[in-house]
Amino acid sequence: MPFTLATWNINSVRLREPIVLKLLQEEAPDVLCLQECKSPVEKIPTEGFAELGYTHMIARGQKGYNGVAILSRLPIEEVGDKDFAGLGHARHIAGRLENGVTIHNFYVPAGGDIPDREKNEKFGQKLDYLTDMRDWFHAEKPEKSILVGDLNIAPREDDVWSHKQLLKVVSHTPIEVETLAETQDAGGWVDITRQDIPEGQLYSWWSYRARDWDAADKGRRLDHVWATPDISNAGHSSRVLRDARGWEKPSDHAPVFATFDV
To answer: What is the mean pLDDT of the chain?
Structure first.
């Protein structure tokens, strides 16, 4: 059963409901994973989504911060969430489709501005969150699974506009890249986006601070689609919908897509 999946840090699902509806209407992924919903679950505007056929939703939310949701046209069964690093944040939700594929939707902490856990508690929380993810994948090896979300790390040199200039900037520091790699290796996860698009600069996030984000093009690939080895060869048609970054009242992230023939 082929299905198309998209992941998108929406930066407030209530504020940006119009562009979520636009994406669902124009691109029609079977499953849409959202991060940074910034809403209690009961206040997520599900009515418009349901009218477009997205009648299934599983989510974790909190007021004003964090929050993850999976919208689906396909039946999906909630299979739980984890509070990594004991932060008490709504940052993970997992669901299983009828074909047996488990989808993990993650919103990894951004980590603040200073890449030093002694000076910046948030950076330590980010590293601890990833380490907890790593340990979980070691303990319970994932199978027939897809992991998506805003992982807040651009791991490769061509995942950022300037490797040299961002080496000391949170999201591309060596310790973050190394910790993410350990987390990925622990689950045997395959980076589907880079499996499909192995070469070249590729971004999914552009700062609001840029006067003209498109012309400056100082992006980073913070949003990821991974799969376990048993289904990684079924993944294809990866792309970043860059145009969405220029929609009215946009998120600073663009949606990332992949299709799986499972």
So the answer is: 98
Q: What share of the chain is helix, strand, coil (3-state, %, to 5)?
A: 30, 25, 40
Contact 220, 160 (CB under 8 A): yes
**C-alpha span between 92 and 68 (Å, rounded):** 6
Asked if residues 68 and 106 have their Cβ atoms less than 8 Å apart, the reply is: yes
DSSP one-letter code for 44: S
Beta bridge partners of 4: 259
Where are the domains positioned within the chain?
A: 2-261
In angstroms, the CA 75 to CA 54 distance is 10
Distance between CA atoms of 179 and 151, rounded to whole angstroms? 12
Q: What is the CA radius of gyration of the chain?
A: 17
CATH numeric code, 2-261: 3.60.10.10
Q: Which pairs with CB-CB distance under 8 Å and at least 24 residues apart come from 52-58?
A: 52/21, 52/24, 52/25, 54/24, 58/93, 58/95
Taking alpha carbons only, the member of 34, 89, 82, 36 closest to residue 58 is 34
Tens-digit pLDDT profile for residues 20-77: 999 999 999 999 999 999 999 999 999 999 999 999 999 999 999 999 999 999 999 9
CA angle 247, 72, 54 (to 5 degrees): 70
Q: Please tell me the distance from the alpha carbon of residue 165 to that of residue 168, in angstroms, as a whole number.
A: 7
Query: Looking at residues 135-163, what average pLDDT do you find?
Result: 98
Nearest to 74 by CA among 37, 41, 103: 103
